[in-house]
Design a protein that fits this description.
One of its GO terms (molecular function) is DNA binding. This protein has helices at about 1-35, 45-55, 95-105, 120-135, 150-160, 165-190, 205-220, 275-285, 310-320, 325-335, 350-365, 400-405, 410-425, 510-520, 525-540, 555-565, 570-585, 590-600, 610-615, 620-625, and strands at about 40-45, 60-65, 70, 80, 85-90, 90, 110-115, 140, 225-235, 235-245, 250, 270, 290-300, 430-440, 445-455, 490-500, 540-545, 550, 625-630, 635-640. The protein has about 650 residues and is of the alpha+beta class. It has four domains: about 35-165, Rossmann fold, CATH 3.40.50.140; about 170-220 and about 505-615, Topoisomerase I, domain 2 (Orthogonal Bundle), CATH 1.10.460.10; about 225-300 and about 430-500, Topoisomerase I, domain 3; about 310-425, Topoisomerase I, domain 4 (Orthogonal Bundle), CATH 1.10.290.10. The termini are far apart. The model is unreliable at about 1-10 and about 20-40 (pLDDT under 50).
């Protein structure tokens, strides 16, 4: 009897298990094949995103691409009714007629329209424009996901929402602002400076930043100084050091010289010339040297946060030698193919799912000694950062390793994925433990200084090290491996070398450093930086030479004209404040027509754009970039245009 009851219980457990498995299978299949009668239409922006969605939703869903924006302000007209609360006039893009016709046709047989455009202002605006032009009579639902995975798509179906009108309003306010600013001011540039020129809310300050740096470099006066390096030997181990002090005077280095004067900025420093350096070398060769001081300090280096749009661009430029536009195009493709999360974000936070995936990968690949007790939480220091989304990371609850995906991706795609994967894991690893050593060698009259750094525990450095834009910055604080020494120990000098140096101007901007500057100033949004980097080069304002951005005469003329007649357009603080206001509109804290009214008509004693457009312009002065004197003391004007 006991055997009978036991067998019966086992059968019950087996049946319950079978029912549960069948239930979960039905749930799974119902997600993939819900609305199997093809009565649901999903619209996304791109064909590649549509193809990826089809992998999860099956053939019973009709998934179509709008191929970007479906309508916009007219190209040949202002398209804004200024006297009617800045009401915009939108027109369908000429190349979208077939797309619109196809979408309308498909919608006739659909029970529900799902709008799965990107999860940002532009995506929300595209979704709204689709409803305006398609005029659906069926239910419309907004699908939002930040990665294209089965789980994320299922959750988006579980949490559909209406179109966010505040986000749409913020995007529309930006578009109208940019049209008023760019369209009307550009016309003044055409007439007064040169045809075909353009101005823009983010473009113009970007050009000014590059021009201002070039002006700073033009004012630079070179300063000459000398240094002395020494090779010392301790118990058969050679190490290099640099002269730090002579007769209680510290030796001047490059940063101690004025950039516009080329002379020392501090009177208590000693600037060596060739003669003095040579004499000191002769004297040092006759001296006896002792280790006079040893300082050792433990140091901790913390990992960098995961990527946001701007930092991904910066590192893609530095490490992979890509342009901003290449980085964003490649990241867009990785997102649409389901490899990474959405790439337009300024949030450095990671979801609990991503934190678990990171920690599991670290534990598996590097061991528990590289895993901190708790997940790291980062807080943004960037002006105007919005924390709505996640950072850029590998998609899914289990990150695919670069090795796993290498066969599926093109070379640059794989390199960028590898960069994102490494940065994400590194952000959740233990800090690096360093031991910094400073050794002073003295003969009683002079002091040589040697700096060393030992990595006692690599931590996150085992996976990722961030690049810098100006490698020359670190030369004065060069660190090397030092042999073990004791204070009072005698060391022998094997060589003294005098070295000639010249001070250097501030480096020209690169795409990476300009993106960083714009981000820190709070000008524009990271999602626009790649387009700006492309525009300022394609429109002839900036040339890229060996990675450096060099302004053209046209750039000088445009900045000069804007500084003279449209000061706010190139006022970096004012431009950043506009970004604050536009963000306030997206939070429904301000009405867009009120803001546009202040901008265009002015407020109190502050003139608006309209008053500036009505100014009198000196055409000849606007075209003159600089004036020079010839050998007869006659003035030669350098002008742009005809």
């Amino acid at each position: 009897m006991e055997f009978y009851h036991s067998l019966k219980a086992q059968n019950n457990i087996f049946n319950i298990t079978r029912i549960y498995l069948l239930y979960t299978f039905i749930l799974d299949v119902s997600f993939i094949y819900m609305a199997a009668d093809s009565t649901n239409l999903i619209i996304v922006e791109s064909p590649s995103k549509a193809r990826t969605l089809k992998r999860y939703l099956g053939d019973n869903y009709q998934i179509e691409a709008s191929v970007g924006h479906i309508r916009d302000l007219p190209k040949s007209d202002l398209g804004v009714d200024i006297e009617n609360n800045f009401k915009p006039t939108y027109v369908a893009a000429e190349d979208k007629a077939k797309v619109i016709s196809q979408l309308k046709k498909l919608m006739k047989n659909a029970a529900t329209l799902y709008l799965a455009t990107d999860p940002d202002r532009e995506g929300e605006a595209i979704a709204w424009h689709l409803t305006e032009i398609l005029n659906p009579s069926i239910p419309v639902k907004r699908l939002v996901f930040h990665e294209i995975t089965k789980k994320a798509i299922q959750e988006s179906f579980d949490h559909t929402r209406d179109i966010d009108k505040s986000l749409v309003g913020a995007q529309e306010a930006r578009r109208i602002l940019d049209r008023l600013w760019g369209y009307q001011v550009s016309q003044k540039l055409w007439y007064n400076v040169k045809g075909g020129l353009s101005a823009g809310r983010v473009q113009s300050p970007s050009i000014k930043i590059v021009v201002d740096r070039e002006k700073e470099r033009a004012k630079f006066k070179e300063g000459e100084y000398w240094s002395i390096t020494a090779q010392f030997d301790s118990k058969g181990n050679n190490f290099e050091s640099r002269l730090k002090e002579v007769e209680s005077h510290k030796i001047a280095i490059g940063k101690d010289f004025g950039k516009e004067t080329g002379v020392l900025t501090k009177s208590d420093l000693l600037a060596l010339d060739e003669s003095r350096a040579t004499k000191l070398v002769e004297a040092f060769s006759k001296s006896s040297w002792l280790v006079s001081k040893i300082e050792q300090k433990p140091a901790t280096q913390n990992p960098y946060p995961p990527f946001i749009t701007s930092t991904l661009q910066q590192e893609g430029i530095r490490k992979l030698k890509m342009s901003s536009q290449q980085v964003m195009r490649t990241a867009q493709h990785l997102y649409e193919e389901g490899y990474i999360t959405y790439m337009r974000t300024d949030s450095i936070s990671l979801s609990s799912e991503a934190l678990n995936a990171s920690r599991n990968a670290i534990k598996k690949l590097y061991g528990t000694e590289f895993l901190p007790d708790k997940p790291r939480v980062f807080k943004s220091k960037v002006k105007n950062a919005q924390e709505a989304h996640e950072a850029i990371r590998p998609a899914g609850s289990t990150f695919q390793s670069p090795k796993d995906v290498q066969g599926n991706l093109k070379e640059l795609e794989w390199k960028l994925y590898d960069l994102i994967w490494k940065r994400t894991l590194a952000s959740q690893m233990k800090s690096a433990k360093l031991l910094k050593t400073n050794v002073e060698i003295s003969d009683g009259n002079a002091i040589f200084d040697a700096k060393g750094k030992v990595i006692e525990f690599p931590g996150f450095l085992k996976v990722y090290v961030e690049d810098i834009d100006d490698p020359g910055k670190e030369k004065d604080d060069k660190e090397s491996l030092l042999p073990p020494m004791n204070e009072g120990e005698s060391v022998s000098a094997t060589e003294f070398t005098p070295n000639q140096h010249f001070t250097k101007p501030s480096p020209r901007y690169t795409e990476a450093s300009l993106v960083k500057e714009l981000e820190e100033l709070g000008i524009g949004r990271p999602s626009t930086y790649a387009a700006i980097m492309g525009n300022i080069q394609q429109r002839g304002y900036v040339r890229k030479v060996k990675g450096a951005l060099i302004p053209t005469f046209t750039a000088y003329a445009v900045v000069q004209f804007l500084e003279r007649y449209f000061t706010d357009m190139v006022n970096l603080q004012y431009t950043a404040s506009l970004e604050d206001t536009l963000d306030a509109i997206s939070r429904s804290e301000m009405k867009s027509d009120e803001f546009l009214g202040y901008f265009y008509f002015g407020q109190n004693s502050t003139p608006g754009l309209q008053a500036l457009l009505d100014s009198e312009f000196d055409k000849d002065q606007s075209r003159t970039i600089m004036e020079l004197k010839d050998e007869n003391d006659e003035t030669i004007a350098v002008k742009i245009g005809r």
